[in-house]
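hey
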């Protein structure tokens, strides 16, 4: 074969390969590339409970308030499960959104695929990504997979499909991740939403109970769909989630530590211990634990931030620590206005946005806005200096250092400044006013300071 023939042959192969790739794509790509995708370390995640977010409880109700989410400072909109909900063995009410009846459909109560597309398009136009909640571990009992592919599920010794082992989740059936056909169907369904709705990633429910091998395969194939980065959040704590391709793990331990500090059973130094536990293995700068002071689960089971963290001021003192201590923050709809009602996500329980506390909203905006400008907070190194009452730490990157002091008690305290921080000059991160640290700092009940130099 001469050189000319070789070139022609190579071009022909390339053409065939491209045609094969196009033919292999299972769905047509909807929409255009989202060019403002935030880096993982820049993410501010806003969790939307569709049933509660608006009076109508629909995707259009979410779309109508995208400007408010944007104004808060969030750049990632995380939608709780959008899929039809199973009713067989239902957990009550309208059913758990985590009992998925059909992985490739929009719950008609929420709207249509076109409604989702419109929401995603408008979010993108406002420079916000959209990620979906993905429920891989189990399905509803009236999911078609149960009857069409019973071999895709785990069974007991008598051949009966089981609920997730070690749980009382009677409304869902446990999938068998040793079954290659099921894994392929699951990955296909995840890709479906990237193709047909142009979404930007997934928050993966119950991730610790699904093997690393599946996540590695699924994330690689999902990320191959689009020419942009996708954000992947594991609702789990395994460090091998990062090896599988996740950007974030979940701060279960840190939230529990916050609860214990505020109920008086642990000192503020316990948060340092929790941070060390969650980062026991080496992470890269962009690999962070997502931390929160509320979400759909703990809001319903444990209480609102006001209930858990000694009211309005305590909830803010807790949030600034959770948002700044080597983390990516997540906000659950309503907390930013001081909404002090538990939200039953098994039913449509609309948030009353007319009860908004403007002062609380202003504080959330201020905390988030500074984080968005601070490379030290987003991806810096952490050093703890806490006392029993005050959470104190620095975040440092290059020439920028941020010092956070947050009184986690409901009484004034004097914090004795360690030598490493004493006799130093700073600026208030929010007002830019000068601030000099001497041998001690007095903080009022639940007062916090964020300083920079």
């Amino acid at each position: 074969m001469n050189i000319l023939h070789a070139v022609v042959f190579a071009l022909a192969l390339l053409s065939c390969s491209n045609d094969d790739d196009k033919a292999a794509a299972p769905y047509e790509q909807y929409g255009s590339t989202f060019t403002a995708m935030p880096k993982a370390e820049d993410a501010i995640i806003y969790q939307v409970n569709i049933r509660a977010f608006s009076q109508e409880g629909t995707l259009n109700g979410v779309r109508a308030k995208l400007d408010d989410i944007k104004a808060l400072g969030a750049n990632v909109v995380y939608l709780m499960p959008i899929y039809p909900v199973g009713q067989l063995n239902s957990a009550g009410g309208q059913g758990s959104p985590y009992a998925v009846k059909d992985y490739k459909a929009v719950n008609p109560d929420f709207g249509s695929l076109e409604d989702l597309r419109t929401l995603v398009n408008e979010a993108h136009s406002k420079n916000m990504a959209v990620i979906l909640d993905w429920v891989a571990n189990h399905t509803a009992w009236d999911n078609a997979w149960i009857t069409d592919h019973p071999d895709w599920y785990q069974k007991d010794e008598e051949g009966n499909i089981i609920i997730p082992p070690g749980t009382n989740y009677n409304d869902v059936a446990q999938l068998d991740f040793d079954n290659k056909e099921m894994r392929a169907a699951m990955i296909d369904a995840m890709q479906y939403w990237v193709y047909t709705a142009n979404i930007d990633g997934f928050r993966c429910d119950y991730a610790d109970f699904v093997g690393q091998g599946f996540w590695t395969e699924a994330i690689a194939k999902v990320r191959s769909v689009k020419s942009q980065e996708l954000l992947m959040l594991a609702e789990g704590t395994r460090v091998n989630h990062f090896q599988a391709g996740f950007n974030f793990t979940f701060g279960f331990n840190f939230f529990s530590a916050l609860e214990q500090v505020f109920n008086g059973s642990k000192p503020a130094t316990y948060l340092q211990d929790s941070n060390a536990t969650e980062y026991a293995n080496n992470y890269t700068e962009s690999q962070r634990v997502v931390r929160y002071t509320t979400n759909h689960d703990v809001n319903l089971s444990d209480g609102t931030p006001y209930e858990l963290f000694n009211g309005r001021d305590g909830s803010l003192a807790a949030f600034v620590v959770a948002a700044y201590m080597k983390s990516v923050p997540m906000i659950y709809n309503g907390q930013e206005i001081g909404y002090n009602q538990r939200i039953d996500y098994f039913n449509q329980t609309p948030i009353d946005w007319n009860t908004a506390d403007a002062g609380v909203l202003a504080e959330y905006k201020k905390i988030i806005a500074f984080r968005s400008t601070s490379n030290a907070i987003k991806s810096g190194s952490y050093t703890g200096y806490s006392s029993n009452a005050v959470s104190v730490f620095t975040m440092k990157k290059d020439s920028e250092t941020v010092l956070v002091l947050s009184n986690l008690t409901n009484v004034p305290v004097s914090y004795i400044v360690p030598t490493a921080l004493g006799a130093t000059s700073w600026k208030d991160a929010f007002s830019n006013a000068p601030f000099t640290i001497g041998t001690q700092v007095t903080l009022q009940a639940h007062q916090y300071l964020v300083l920079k130099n």
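The CA atoms of residues 41 and 286 lie 5 Å apart. DSSP finds 16 helices and 18 strands in the chain.
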